[in-house]
Amino acid sequence: MSVQEPIQGTAVAVLREDGQWRCIRMPESALLDLDTAITELRNTRSTGAAFALLNVDDEFFVLLRPAPGGVSMLLSDATAALDYDIAADVLDLLRIELPDEDEDELWPEGDLGILADLGLSDAELTVIVEEDVYPDEQLMMIAQRCGFAAPLATVLEHRESV
Length: 162
What we know:
Helices cover 32% and strands 23% of the residues. Strands 2-1-3-4-5-6 form a six-stranded antiparallel sheet, with helices on both faces. It has helices at residues 34-42, 85-93, 122-130, 135-146, 149-161, and strands at 9-17, 20-25, 50-56, 60-67, 70-75, 109-110. By secondary structure, it is α+β, with helices and mostly antiparallel strands.
């Protein structure tokens, strides 16, 4: 089930405190293991909104957001669970069965209203998820709509220059 090659991508914690957005790079291990991603996000400690953006191999993305009694999640492509452990773990935590091996249609699973209180309705997030663009572009659309595009771009640019 899992991809054996090294996973590429980015994991970013997004925090809103005192009306200001801040983005922090998370360790690459957050792209491999859902528990690691959740733990890293919870360790960021924020008095305001906190959530994570995971772009896994430019194939799909995961949104994670701590919630009372657990974590809200959105997986942009449920079929990614056939090839990536972290996507399979998201479906498992959501109690959703793996798609059939021969499935060729893409669809999201999880909470499409995960960022509704930050100005991104479930209908708008659905449109973004259904866009035929790479996950990094989808995540930037989310950032632009919610207002943290500049801090996210700064974190992503810093990675590319390292």
